[in-house]
Amino acid sequence: MPRISTRRFRAADARDAEQIAALHADSWRRFYRGAYADAFLDGDVEADRRAVWLARLAAPAGTGTVVAEHGDRLVGFVHVVFDNDARWGSLVDNLHVIDDQRRTGLGTQLLARAARAVTERAAGAAMYLWVLEQNTAAQGFYRASGATCVETATVAPPGADPARLVGTPRKLRMAWADAAPVSRPAGGTSG
């Protein structure tokens, strides 16, 4: 696994849409199975994510996306929608790390960058995200970074297509009242 110092972080642009979509689709295939329909995950998910990322990166107003690279390979990304909710603040809409980079500190670095962007660009300091109820590892990661579970809700189907879900999966809203402490993680991994 690469040392932390070999990673580069930069703002994403439209040229990154394909790689981000591929990583996003792979992450959903690994961690959303059972909540999202196999037919969707094994079929349309990459095209769906490509359309989403092409649109997001073509018109990024009110958002920020940071990619992490190692060599010429995209190894992670985080996407924030600033001031998305009057009560909960800015939404960390996506944070995904390539499978062979999990548990290397990369997720912590990306979350710190999202929090730093919130403190620099949002009107309020609060930050939140949604995580699938079945994704207990991610919940543990966010709790360890100071998030609190504040509510549970039903997952909306991707592309508004109910056939893409299995039953009625649930999601948890994880929230930070102040993003500033998250922007400075312990252990100096914000590099």
From TrEMBL:
What CDD domains does the database record attribute to this sequence?
A: NAT_SF (cd04301)
Acyltransferase among the record's keywords?
yes
Q: Where does the sequence pass through the membrane?
A: none
Key words, A-Z: Acyltransferase, Transferase
SUPFAM superfamilies (UniProt xref): Acyl-CoA N-acyltransferases (Nat) (SSF55729)
Q: Where does the N-acetyltransferase domain start and stop, copy by copy?
A: 7-175
What Pfam families is this protein classified in?
Acetyltransf_1
Entry's InterPro entries? Acyl_CoA_acyltransferase, Bact_Acetyltransf, GNAT_dom
PROSITE patterns, per the entry: GNAT
Under what name is this protein listed?
A: GNAT family N-acetyltransferase
